[in-house]
Design goal:
heterodimer, A: Fructose Permease, globular, B: alpha/beta, Rossmann fold, 4-stranded parallel beta sheet
Chain lengths: 167, 138
């Protein structure tokens, strides 16, 4: 059974912060990206495979394949660093039965309807609803960009989100 | 006889936050006026997609066989450059440093090729040394 070491939601997937900081913080030897669009794009897959450090394997699955593999044999062996690009995919994956207990939110990008709640990390209304539901079901959600800087618990970020949206 | 301005192959720097611009500016102190070098900064809120679009706008206008230098291999700057190289004839080097940029600037009057990029890379690696005094002074 593979051991899930860290689950991060990061709109840039494998990038500078992840390869220089987070991977080294864990002892993960497999990066699993769960993303339907990427799973169907062989070319972009190869870019992310090249982006990872040499001693770390990269696998990219659609939500359905990931759930299927988890149900089959808990995704094999090794220590996993699981990456999502967005909250909606994370939500579907957890609902589908992959037991994720901690969710680190590293960045969700910018765009219409997105509100910065902690440094450059943004939420929109949908993110907030889905994360609230996950927390109620026992997931621990926190916001953390880079290890040496402070993190923020989801509850606090939620208050920020509402207070900014009221203005 | 008037000097003929030869066409220059461009160098595009892609860095986190845009530190390549400062590097270029300060390097002029060592090698004189630098032209044909530009930079596009990756900002914290950029998505890979909008960064890709910005870079493509620029790369479209660069001559074939130009050079992109990125800061971090495996970072978004590198991932985006690599994915653009499918469509455009560009060379890419990661790990921007002062010697790398100097060597690249000195080769701008010829197309960047497999061979010239290899030379630039070697020069950049050579410039990274653990400097120590000779034994007699330690």
């Amino acid at each position: 059974m593979a051991e899930i070491q860290m689950v991060r939601v990061d709109f840039r997937l494998i990038h500078g912060q992840v390869i220089t900081k987070w991977i080294r913080q864990t002892s993960a030897n497999r990066i699993v990206i769960i993303n339907d669009v990427l799973a169907a794009d062989e070319f972009m897959k190869s870019i992310y495979v090249m982006a990872a450090p040499a001693n770390v394997e990269v696998e990219i699955y659609s939500v359905n394949t990931a759930i299927e593999l988890w149900n089959k044999n808990q995704m094999g062996g090794g220590k996993l660093f699981v990456l999502f690009k967005d909250i909606e995919t994370t939500f579907r994956t957890i609902k589908g039965g992959i037991p994720i207990k901690d969710i680190q939110i590293g960045g969700l990008g910018a765009g219409p309807g997105r509100v910065a709640v902690f440094g450059p990390i943004t939420f929109n209304g949908d993110d907030v609803d889905l994360l609230k539901e996950l927390e109620e079901e026992g997931c621990h959600v926190y916001l953390h960009q880079v290890p040496d800087e402070p993190k923020m618990e989801f509850k606090k970020a939620l208050e920020r989100f509402h207070s900014i949206n009221k203005r | 006889m008037m000097a003929i301005e030869t066409e220059k192959y461009e160098i595009l720097l892609l860095t986190h936050g845009g530190w390549g611009e400062a590097l270029t500016e300060k390097l002029e102190m060592i090698i004189g006026k630098i032209t044909g070098v530009s930079e596009i900064a990756l900002n914290p809120t950029d998505t890979s997609e909008n960064f890709f679009e910005k870079i493509e706008e620029k790369v479209k206008e660069m001559p074939n066989h130009s050079l992109i230098i990125t800061d971090i291999a495996g970072g978004t700057t590198s991932n985006v450059a690599l994915s653009l190289s499918r469509k455009y004839s560009i060379q890419i080097l990661s790990g921007l440093n002062s010697m790398m940029l100097m060597e690249a600037v000195m080769r701008q009057n010829r197309p960047f090729t497999e061979e010239s990029v290899k030379e630039i890379r070697e020069a950049a690696l050579m410039s990274c040394q653990h400097l120590k005094l000779p034994k007699s002074y330690q």
